[in-house]
C-alpha cells in the first residue's frame, strides 16, 4: 500500500526519488469514523493527512469552509506552525495516509520546492507552484519558427535610389532595413548604414543607395527554427537576417524580435501607438496588448505585473485614441477618465470598457455626439467589449459637464438601489488619463464630501459586498455529485475578487483614502490602522491568487471561445495544491467579509 | 474458524520451544495484525508460501511504517508456472529470499499474541501452521478475524432466503469504497484487508449496514481475471 502513495500529486511531485522512498517507508494509514474530529483550532498535528478515500469537512465556528476529498492534504498549518486554524471533521468513512510531522519538517528543510507548499502566505505558495512552468519558456522560444517573430514588409529599392528616398521609404514602412536591387543582385541596406554614410563618410543625401548597401545577405527560411537563425546571427555577427518565405524575401528577423518572443513585445507597443496616424493604425497595437497578456502569462510573469503592464499600455492607447478622435473643443475642455478595474489597474484580459468624459462646460452638441459614438465604437472594434452597465463615453450620463455629473452622483447617493451603489463604486475607481484631470479630482472630492461622516450611506455602499456568496470549496461539488450533476464551478470574480475589491472601496471611502488601486488602498488602510499589517498582506495575497486563477480561466475561455465562462474555475480540474491555495484564499475572503459586516453593521440590512 | 480454550491449552502444553510462549499471551489491547501469504497453490498440504506480509493495526491506524515483509524460498519444489503468473515472482526473485524456517521466527515475534486479520485468513494460517509445527510443534493460537465474515454480516446478515451472496474481495473493496491496489502483492493485500477490517468494525459499532443491490441491478457478471 505505501507503494501506492501517489507521488505525482502536488506538492509531493517536488520530492526526489529518494525522498519519496523515505516518505513511503514512514507512512501509516488512518481510518476516520464519520463525524470524527481530526483536528480542532489551535491543535498541533502529529501527522500531515493525505486523503485516500472519503471526505473531510473544514469548519470555522460552525461555518463550512471546504470539503476535502481524495488527494487533498491537511492541515499544513497544524503541522508546520503547530496550530490548526479550523476544525477538521470526517464527513464519512475516510482513509488517510499519515505522514509523520518530523518527516514533513525534515523534507521542508531539505527541499525548497516542497517547502513552498507550506508557506503561510497564499500568493507566495502560488508563485512557487507557478515557477515550474517558467523554465519552459526559453526552450519554447528556441523552438518557435522564424515566421512567428520576423517582421515585414520587405521593401525593395532600386540601386540608384537616393539615400533620402531610401530613408523615407523605410520610415514610411516603419522598418530598419530594406532590400536593394542592383544589376540582378540583391543587397541589404539598414538605417544604420544610411546614418553612417551621411554622418561618418560625409556622402551627400542624393548619393545612390547602392554605394552604402552590402551584398553578403545572410538569410533564413520563414519555416526555420529560431535557434537556427540565432546560430547564423552569432556566426556572422549580424543583428538581423533576411527572411525568405517560399523563395521570396518577405522581411527581416532582428534580435529584438526574438527578444519579443521571450519577454513579450510590450516594449515595442508604445512606439507603435505613438506612430499611429489614424484610428485604423491603432488596431494592430491594440491587438498586441491583448496578445502579450497570454504570452507574459505563459512565461510565468506574475499577474499583478501583467495587470500593470497591460493597464499602462491601455492608457497610452486611450490617450492616443482621444487625441485622434476628440475635436479641439473637447480636447480643450474635457478629461478622459477610466473607471472600474481599468481605473484600478487590475484588468488583464479585456472584459468591458469602463470609461467616461468630464467637461468643464458645454461643448457643441453635434461634436460631442460624434465623439461619443466614434470613441466607444473604435474601442469596441479594438476588442474592448461594451460595458454591460453602459459605463462608457457613449452614454451621455458618463460624458457630461462636471456640475451635471456631480448632480448625478448626488442622485445616486440618495437612491437606495444596488445599481446606484454600483455606479458610485465604479466612479470611485476613476482615474483621469488625459485632458483636464483636475475636473475629475473636483468631482471625486465632491463625492467624498457628500459621503463623509454619513455612516448609513457608506454602510449601504458597503452592503454590495453581500451581493454574492463566497462559497466553501468543494461543498457544492459534493452536493452536486450526490444528485448526479457534475458541475462544481466557482465564479472566482463574484466569490473572491469582488468582495475584496469592494470591501476595500468601502473602507477607503469611509476614511477618505483616494488611492484607486486595491493594493494602494490596502496599504493606506494598513497605515491608517484599519487592520493589521499581516491581514493586509494576506488580503492582497488572496486578491492576487484570485486574479491569477481568473486570468487562467479567461485565457482558457478565450481559447475555447466561451467568454461567458471567463471567471469560472472548476476545482475538480485543479491539482490538490491549487485547490489548497484557492481554499486558503477563500478563507481569507470570508474573514474579510466578516470584518466588513461587523464594521458597517451590515446585519441591519438583512 | 475459532480455536477454543481447550485447543489453546493443549497446544500451549505441547509447545516445543518455550521461548514462543508469548504467542499464547493476549497481545496489546486494541491491536491486531493483518496478514497475507502468497503461495504456489491453494492446497496447504502440498503448496508453499512464496511471500508473506503483515501490518500491525493499532486502534484506527494501520502501521504500514512498521510492516513485516518477506519473500520466501520454497524448500521442496519450485513454484509452478501458474503461481508465477499470479504473483509475478519469478524464480530469480525468489533466489535471494530466505527459507520459511528462517523467516517464521521474525514473523511470529512481529505477530505476538495479536489477533490475525485477513481475507480467508484461515487459509493463510493453515499455510503458516505447517511451518510452525516443524519449528515449534504448535499451530498458531492467535484469534482470527475474518474480513469476509464481517462483510457478510454487514451486508447479508439480514438477507431473505434465496439472496445470492457475493463475497469476492473485489466486491468487498468496492462496497467499502476502498481503492483497489495492485492485487497479489502480499503487502497490498494485507493493507487492503486491514482497511476493510477497520471500516467494517466501525460500521458494526455504529450499526450501519451495507445496502444490497436490488435484483437486476447487481454487479455485471465477472468476466474472468
Describe the 3D structure.
The complex is a heterodimer of chains A (606) and B (225). With 606 residues, chain A is an alpha+beta fold. Chain A contains 26 helices and 20 strands. In chain A, the strands form six sheets. Chain A has a four-stranded antiparallel beta sheet with strand order 1-8-3-6. A four-stranded antiparallel beta sheet of chain A has the order 2-7-4-5, with helices on one face. Residues 476-486 of chain A have low confidence and may be disordered. By secondary structure, chain B is of the alpha/beta class. In chain B, strands 4-3-2-1-5-6 form a six-stranded mixed beta sheet, sandwiched between helices. In chain B, a hairpin with a 2-residue loop joins strand 2 and strand 3 (61-73). The model of chain B is unreliable at 221-225 (pLDDT under 50). The interface between A and B is medium-sized, with 21 and 25 residues. Strand 1 (28-32) of chain A pairs antiparallel with strand 3 of chain B.
What's the structural blueprint in terms of helices and strands?
The complex is a heterodimer of chains A (606) and B (225).
Chain A: H1 17-26, E1 28-32, E2 37-39, E3 47-53, E4 56-60, E5 63-68, E6 73-74, H2 76-81, E7 87-90, E8 94-100, H3 101-110, H4 112-115, H5 122-130, H6 136-142, H7 146-149, E9 156-158, H8 163-173, E10 177-182, E11 185-190, H9 191-199, E12 219-221, H10 226-236, E13 240-245, E14 248-254, H11 255-263, H12 269-275, H13 279-298, H14 303-325, H15 328-333, E15 334-338, H16 340-344, E16 355-359, H17 365-381, E17 399-401, H18 402-414, H19 418-428, E18 431-435, H20 438-451, H21 455-462, H22 475-482, E19 490-491, H23 492-510, H24 518-527, H25 533-560, E20 568-569, H26 576-599
Parallel strand pairs in A: 9-10, 12-13, 16-17
Antiparallel strand pairs in A: 1-8, 2-7, 3-6, 3-8, 4-5, 4-7, 10-11, 13-14, 15-16, 15-18, 19-20
Chain B: H1 5-14, E1 31-39, E2 49-58, E3 61-73, H2 81-87, H3 91-95, E4 98-99, H4 100-111, E5 116-118, H5 121-136, E6 144-146, H6 147-156, H7 169-176, H8 186-206
Parallel strand pairs in B: 1-5, 3-4, 5-6
Antiparallel strand pairs in B: 1-2, 2-3
Amino acid at each position: 500500500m505505501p507503494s501506492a502513495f501517489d507521488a505525482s500529486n502536488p506538492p509531493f511531485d517536488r520530492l526526489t526519488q529518494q525522498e519519496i522512498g523515505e516518505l513511503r517507508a514512514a507512512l501509516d494509514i488512518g481510518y476516520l469514523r464519520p463525524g470524527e474530529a481530526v483536528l480542532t483550532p489551535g491543535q498541533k498535528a502529529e501527522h500531515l493527512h493525505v486523503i485516500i478515500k472519503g471526505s473531510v469537512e473544514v469548519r470555522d465556528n460552525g461555518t463550512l469552509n471546504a470539503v476535502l476529498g481524495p488527494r487533498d492534504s491537511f492541515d499544513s498549518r497544524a503541522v508546520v506552525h503547530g496550530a490548526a486554524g479550523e476544525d477538521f471533521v470526517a464527513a464519512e468513512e475516510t482513509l488517510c495516509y499519515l505522514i509523520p510531522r518530523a518527516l514533513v519538517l525534515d523534507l521542508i528543510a531539505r527541499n525548497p520546492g516542497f517547502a513552498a507548499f507550506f508557506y503561510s502566505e497564499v500568493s507566495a505558495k502560488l508563485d512557487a507552484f507557478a515557477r515550474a512552468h517558467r523554465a519552459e519558456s526559453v526552450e519554447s522560444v528556441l523552438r518557435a519558427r522564424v515566421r512567428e517573430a520576423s517582421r515585414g514588409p520587405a521593401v525593395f529599392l532600386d540601386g540608384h535610389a537616393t539615400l533620402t528616398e531610401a530613408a523615407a521609404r523605410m520610415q514610411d514602412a516603419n522598418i530598419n532595413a530594406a532590400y536593394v536591387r542592383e544589376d540582378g543582385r540583391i543587397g541589404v541596406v539598414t538605417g544604420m548604414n544610411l546614418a553612417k554614410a551621411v554622418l561618418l563618410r560625409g556622402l551627400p543625401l542624393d548619393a545612390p543607395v547602392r554605394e552604402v548597401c552590402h551584398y553578403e545577405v545572410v538569410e533564413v527560411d520563414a519555416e526555420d527554427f529560431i535557434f537556427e537563425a540565432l546560430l547564423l546571427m552569432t556566426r556572422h555577427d549580424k543583428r538581423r537576417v533576411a527572411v525568405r518565405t517560399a523563395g521570396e524575401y518577405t522581411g527581416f528577423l532582428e534580435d529584438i524580435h526574438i527578444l519579443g518572443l521571450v519577454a513579450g513585445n510590450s516594449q515595442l507597443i508604445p512606439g507603435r501607438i505613438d506612430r499611429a496616424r489614424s484610428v485604423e493604425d491603432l488596431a494592430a497595437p491594440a491587438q498586441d496588448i491583448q496578445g502579450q497578456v497570454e504570452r507574459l502569462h505563459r512565461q510565468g510573469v506574475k499577474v499583478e505585473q501583467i495587470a500593470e503592464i497591460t493597464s499602462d499600455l491601455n492608457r497610452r492607447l486611450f490617450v492616443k485614441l482621444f487625441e485622434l478622435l476628440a475635436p479641439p473643443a473637447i480636447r480643450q475642455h474635457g478629461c478622459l477618465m477610466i473607471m472600474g478595474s481599468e481605473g484600478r489597474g487590475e484588468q488583464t484580459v479585456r472584459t468591458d470598457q469602463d470609461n467616461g468624459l468630464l467637461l468643464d462646460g458645454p461643448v457643441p452638441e453635434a461634436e460631442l455626439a460624434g465623439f461619443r459614438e466614434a470613441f466607444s465604437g473604435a474601442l469596441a472594434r479594438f476588442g474592448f467589449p461594451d460595458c454591460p452597465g453602459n459605463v462608457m463615453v457613449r452614454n451621455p450620463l458618463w460624458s457630461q459637464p462636471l456640475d451635471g455629473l456631480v448632480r448625478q452622483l448626488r442622485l445616486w447617493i440618495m437612491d437606495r438601489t444596488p445599481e446606484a451603489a454600483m455606479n458610485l463604486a465604479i466612479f470611485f475607481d476613476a482615474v483621469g488619463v488625459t485632458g483636464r484631470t483636475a475636473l475629475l479630482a473636483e468631482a471625486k472630492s465632491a463625492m467624498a464630501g457628500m459621503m463623509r461622516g454619513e455612516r448609513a450611506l457608506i454602510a449601504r455602499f458597503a452592503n454590495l459586498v453581500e451581493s454574492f456568496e463566497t462559497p466553501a470549496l468543494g461543498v457544492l461539488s459534493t452536493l452536486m455529485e450526490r444528485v448526479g450533476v457534475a458541475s462544481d464551478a466557482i465564479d472566482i470574480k463574484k466569490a473572491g475578487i469582488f468582495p475584496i475589491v469592494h470591501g476595500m472601496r468601502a473602507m477607503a471611502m469611509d476614511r477618505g483614502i483616494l488611492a484607486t488601486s486595491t493594493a494602494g488602498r490596502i496599504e493606506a488602510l494598513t497605515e491608517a490602522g484599519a487592520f493589521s499589517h499581516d491581514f493586509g498582506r494576506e488580503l492582497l495575497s488572496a486578491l492576487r491568487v484570485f486574479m491569477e486563477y481568473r486570468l487562467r480561466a479567461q485565457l482558457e475561455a478565450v481559447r475555447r471561445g466561451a467568454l461567458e465562462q471567463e471567471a469560472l474555475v472548476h476545482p475538480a480540474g485543479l491539482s490538490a495544491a491549487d485547490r489548497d491555495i484557492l481554499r486558503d484564499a477563500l478563507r481569507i475572503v470570508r474573514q474579510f467579509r466578516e470584518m466588513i459586516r461587523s464594521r458597517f453593521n451590515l446585519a441591519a440590512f438583512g | 474458524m475459532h480455536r477454543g480454550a481447550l485447543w489453546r491449552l493443549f497446544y500451549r502444553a505441547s509447545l516445543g520451544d518455550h521461548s514462543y510462549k508469548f504467542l499464547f499471551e493476549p497481545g496489546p489491547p486494541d491491536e491486531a495484525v493483518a496478514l497475507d501469504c502468497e503461495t504456489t497453490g491453494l492446497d496447504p498440504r502440498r503448496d508453499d508460501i512464496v511471500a508473506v506480509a503483515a501490518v500491525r493495526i493499532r486502534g484506527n491506524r494501520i502501521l504500514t511504517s512498521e510492516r513485516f515483509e518477506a519473500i520466501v524460498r520454497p524448500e521442496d519444489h519450485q513454484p509452478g508456472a501458474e503461481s508465477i503468473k499470479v504473483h509475478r515472482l519469478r524464480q530469480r526473485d525468489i533466489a535471494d529470499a530466505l527459507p520459511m524456517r528462517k523467516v517464521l521466527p521474525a514473523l511470529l515475534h512481529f505477530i505476538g499474541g495479536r489477533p490475525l486479520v485477513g481475507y480467508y485468513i484461515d487459509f493463510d494460517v493453515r499455510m503458516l501452521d505447517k511451518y510452525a509445527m516443524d519449528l515449534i510443534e504448535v499451530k498458531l493460537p492467535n484469534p482470527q478475524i475474518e474480513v469476509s465474515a464481517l462483510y457478510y454480516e454487514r451486508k447479508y446478515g439480514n438477507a431473505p432466503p434465496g439472496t445470492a451472496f457475493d463475497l469476492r474481495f473485489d466486491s468487498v473493496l468496492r462496497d467499502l469504497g476502498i481503492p483497489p491496489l495492485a492485487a497479489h502483492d502480499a503487502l497490498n493485500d494485507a493493507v487492503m484487508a486491514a482497511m476493510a477490517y477497520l471500516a467494517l468494525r466501525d460500521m458494526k459499532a455504529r450499526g450501519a449496514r451495507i445496502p444490497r443491490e436490488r435484483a437486476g441491478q447487481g454487479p455485471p457478471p465477472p468476466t474472468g481475471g
